[in-house]
């Protein structure tokens, strides 16, 4: 498959300045659980960042719409694999992207089928570490119950629903958001970087991609 054909199916890959490697997002308007939580004050989805700012630019909305439409395409997995391998292909020293990919800087898993396809993309790109944050614990639970398997290079983090709430016990790798309470587990350092070239960035931290880090806690901002 040519790269232009892959783009036509799956849309574009993102290159976030905050974190290493690549990303891929769909509209937060398509979130299932997140759309409900967005209406609840004190939830981790209330006043969702992905429903404001740069995310409402027409060009971004068009890109999200193309990506979400592509999910159901029979060749979506193939297209995503082509795009990721092209983005991360070996280049001159200092120019190659770090081998990390984040799913859904906006949006979330849509179905068991969608989750299965993400797992297959990860399976076909073993050279990359994949991170998938999600609030769709029910979809994930049914996926596993029905025989779905998560490849070793994909870290799925189930997010807490309430700010200062406890991490879910339904999945072993999680994330929380803290505001008044102390961080649970690993305190995300990005927001604490207040100046310099690494301001607000992951820098050398890769905790979100590691299953060895049971919980990552993000300071609400």
What does this 3D model show about the protein?
There is one protein chain. With 221 residues, this protein is α/β, with parallel strands linked by helices. It has one domain. Helices cover 27% and strands 14% of the residues. Helix 6 (137-145) links the parallel strand 3 (129-134) and strand 4. The mean pLDDT is 91.
Query: How is the biggest beta sheet arranged?
Result: 7 strands, parallel
Helix content: 25-40%
- Secondary-structure-based class equals alpha/beta
Strand content: 5-15%
Spans of at least 5 consecutive residues whose pLDDT stays below 50 are: none
The count of β-strands is: 7
* Separate helix tally: 6
Rg is: 17 Å
Order of helices and strands: HEHHHEHEHEEEE
What is the global morphology?
globular
Question: How many separate structural domains?
Answer: 1
Please tell me the overall pLDDT: 91
User: First CA to last CA: what distance?
Assistant: 42 Å
Question: How do the strands line up in the largest sheet?
Answer: 1-2-3-4-5-7-6
List the helices and strands and how they pair.
Elements: H1 3-10, E1 22-24, H2 33-37, H3 58-70, H4 76-87, E2 100-103, H5 112-124, E3 129-134, H6 137-145, E4 154-159, E5 174-178, E6 186-187, E7 215-219
Parallel strand pairs: 1-2, 2-3, 3-4, 4-5, 5-7, 6-7
